[in-house]
Amino acid sequence: MSNASEAIAGDPACPLCGSTAELIFRRNHRGKDWFLARCKCGLHFTHPLPTPDEITEFYTGDYHEELIGATIDDQPMMPKFRHYIDRIKPHFPSGRSLDVGCTNGLFPYLMQQNGYQAEGIELNPKTAKWGAETYGVPIWTGSFDEFDGGGNRYDVITMTDVVEHTLNPLQTLKKLNRMLRRSGGAMITFPDITSAKSQYYRRVAQVTHRDWLWVTCCIPAHIWEFTQPVATRCFENAGFAVRSFERTEAREEGLPGKLALISLLARPFDLPWMAPRFGTQMEFVLEKVREVE
Fold first, then answer.
1. DSSP-derived pairing of the beta strands 154-160 and 95-100
2. Helix, strand or coil for residue 156?
3. Helix, strand, coil shares of the chain as percentages rounded to 5?
4. In 3-state terms, what secondary structure has residue 242?
5. Residue 208 lies in a domain
6. Per-residue pLDDT reduced to its tens digit, 228-276
């Protein structure tokens, strides 16, 4: 991507393998240019890396406003969370659980209703306070990097659409490992940047010269964009084995007005029989197989 390369001197080194990565996409967010870099090993990542302060700004204020105040029946994430529990229970049917990035606390509440001793951790203090008061589950406020769990170890830790937001995913996964009991496990979810639907929107953005139309590419909020092989390699390096893998389709909101046709043409990817092979969202149930430092 020549215009991207001209805008920043030098291509970045891949944080995973050390090779030189290629800048393939540029997006302006809040007056700053951000780039999507792609390494030959398959890892995609935001360049330059956001600072901790910039990351905090992404998720403060009204970031979760639509999730606060709604009744349980009106919570848009309810079907997805029930699906996650159905994935977890056959492998880790009970015990102490932690949901990292729990937003309004609905997921740990549902885990509690299914017999787990559930807790959550959330960076946004307003959202965490509302969730703890509404659902009556313990929600720690702050970042996972600074979290010690009060010295507790967990049977299950969930990170749904979280790892891609962290500054160092491998270190985050290693910390997750250390916070699990020997027989514990985790559920990790995030999107596949190379899915058919994502590549469709990327092409639309390129043809129209409107970077925001690549709606499945979420730089700079997503610091990392994964593929299945890259994710599996990260899990193995962090002391995990993949016990179960599944693809689903994360159906985005349709584009407005005259752009609605673009989203309409992407609808075939949302069909139920397409998701297992082409789904944008990847769901991993992991088993801890060794301790890591």
1. parallel
2. strand
3. 40, 25, 35
4. strand
5. yes
6. 999 999 999 999 999 999 998 866 666 777 888 888 888 777 777 777 7
